[in-house]
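[step 3/7] fold_predict: job queued, chain A
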Amino acid sequence: MNQQQKCVVITGGSRGLGLAIIHRLFEAGYAVATCSRHPTPELQALIEQHGSSSLLWVPAAIGDEAEEAAFFAAVIEWAGPRTVHALINNAAVAQDGILATLPNVDSTRIIEVNLLGSLRMSRLALRHMLGARRGGRIINISSIIGSRGYTGLAAYSASKAGLDGLTRALAREVGRRQITVNSVAPGYLETDMSAGLEQRQRAQIINRTPLGRLGTVHDVSPLVMFLLSEEAGFITGQTLTVDGGISC
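[step 4/7] structure written:
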């Protein structure tokens, strides 16, 4: 099948890792549907370059159940006869702060976006994949913080640990229908999320990383592409780490 007949849905594709993955998807010939709160100039340039038939962007906030449902409904209408091959749950938020003083509204939003939003998007995608009976892929963008923890990121760590648990459970549920479910857990990347690190924190992280640097989105996106491929068809229920060795 021509990859252009296959669609990949990725949340939070307007910048950072999500945008890098979209670039890779286009190189591989996929059609792409994504959502974010607002477009970015980089995403708008991609829409102009590839056209609305190859790239769908919908203004939608993951963490809002109604907007998630509206986004996926728009995807199905846009895809038409094409196969929705995969869902990449990439949208996430982080709020640095000691849990004892972190407002409930902030911790609730982190769980709502990072975990519950991914769970609900997976449910929508699975209903479509199971109905189509063509298999599929779900890839959850997790984090080493989910397994290692980090001071000031308790809610974020809990949300990513929950995402890894969701990965393992769903892999068991849908494996016999040839749907694989995996997590990709990046380490500390040069993205907007890490831009707020103090210089001292950055230096500590780099010193603890065997490869001696922060990662980039280009270190992670090839693994995502591999998990989408036929060659990864026997890999499921795994959390695959890309962190320069910091967690070894």
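[step 5/7] annotate
The chain has a mean pLDDT of 93.
The first helix runs from residue 16 to 28.
exit 0
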